[in-house]
Amino acid sequence: MVSVGCEAFRVSVCPYVLQEKWVNVIFAFVVLCLGGCRSVEHDATASVVSSPSVLAQRVNAIDDPIARMAMLDTMLSEDPAVAVEMCRHLNGHDERSQCFQVAHRPHLWVDRYMRPLASRPRPDAHTPSFSQVQPEPCPDCRTPFAVIRAAGDHAKRGDARMAAGICKGLSDTRWSDECMFHAAEQCVHDLRSPGYADAVGLCTASASFSSACLMHIHTFPQMQSPLTTEKSDWEPVIQYAETIRAFWSERDPGFGDLAEGQLWSVTLVNAYFQSRDISGEPLDFLPASAVPHVHSAVALRLATDGMFEGMDLATASASLDTALERRVGTTRRQRPKMIPLDPASIWDTSSDKVGMIPYLNTGLRQHHSEPTTDRLLALLEAVARRPRLDRAWIPQARAHPSEAVQQTAQQLHRLRDPHDPSRGRRSPSQIDRGRRSHR
Predict the structure, then answer these.
(1) What is the pTM of this model?
(2) Distance between alpha carbon 6 and the CA centroid of its chain, in Å?
(3) Which of 72, 94, 355, 424 is in the most buried spot, having the most CB atoms within 10 Å?
(4) How many CB atoms lie within 10 A of CB 165?
(5) What is the pLDDT of residues 406-425, one digit of tens each?
(6) CA dihedral over 259, 263, 268, 273, signed as positive or negative
(7) Could you tell me how far CA 341 lies from the centroid of its own chain?
(8) Rounded to an integer, what distance in angstroms lies between the CA atom of residue 412 and that of residue 393?
(9) At what angle do helices 65-78 and 93-103 cross, to 10 degrees?
(10) Nearest to 234, CA basis, from 163, 151, 293
(11) Which residue positions in the chain have pLDDT lower than 70?
């Protein structure tokens, strides 16, 4: 079993540092690992108010890797932006990489981190199970990160059982679960469809992170999406979508639809934000299940570029139609634009998902089988994530004959009207300033 930490306090303190956000315990642990007898209250105050570079100096002075992660854990809970900036000032490439790895994997430090769409599915007896796998030693692994890398290497080579065994060698459950999570991602790295069943099994074994893990294997199996016009580059994505659909068809078809929708939603948004030209080429070669996600991606890209500002709803809708009907033949890759990812969505993701499809990273949106109506729904969702929206759009959409359009307009009204008692928790400007990603 791998266990690292301050020797004298390994049993009584380290498990709490890694599993809970008990700030007093964390700071006591950090102070003790620093070898000092200074006041816990003094150190707690200093950690919050110090600049990123000063905090990095303090972290650089800590030899114990668990103590370093404990301090980062606290900082991320207090102020993620400061923590990420601190990572840039750490000594050594490995230390900076590990810091960024934790900072950009929020399930490691956000309490009760949940992905609403990745509800627990119903695997069957034919789904690989790693619950009975025995721990495997990793003699050269001195830190949890080394164990995680070793397990990921085995998973990438197709040996998921050995990967699971290495992960079970970690004594702390949070790092063991993260190890299973990472191994699952490596099973389907670069859309390797044969590893999908093992990835699902490893996600199930990741326990506390299983929901986030299931989302990741459907949304981030490859780092760079294809260009929108290159049909041949989309073949691996199409095959991966078919693998997802086939795997869940007799196990849990409803979850399979959501999983495939997540793949198309994220991959197409990434593709459109990385392609210089905006056109409807993917409509010509992607399956029908991807079509509403093409609508979403194009509408969001146009809204992000400010194309709808100053337009009424009808003019903006016509502009979206024109973009989707356009064909450019080929396009070039550009530096990815900032993509707004709103974890909360404008919808209650815990409610009934009938008539809803995945949107962006973890959100939902209304879907309609009639293409023109579905494009309008995609347009309304896109502008909901921009700080400026012509208020005339809302009554125009509420007058639309489609019930789905009316419901989306009502959600926008609740977000925009501060006097509406049913208003959502966050304003559109807060949504637009929310979590963003280049992925």
Answers:
(1) 0.72
(2) 33
(3) 72
(4) 19
(5) 999 888 887 766 455 444 44
(6) positive
(7) 9
(8) 10
(9) 40
(10) 293
(11) 1-50, 65-66, 68-70, 72-81, 84, 94, 98, 100-126, 221-224, 336-346, 348-354, 385-390, 416-439
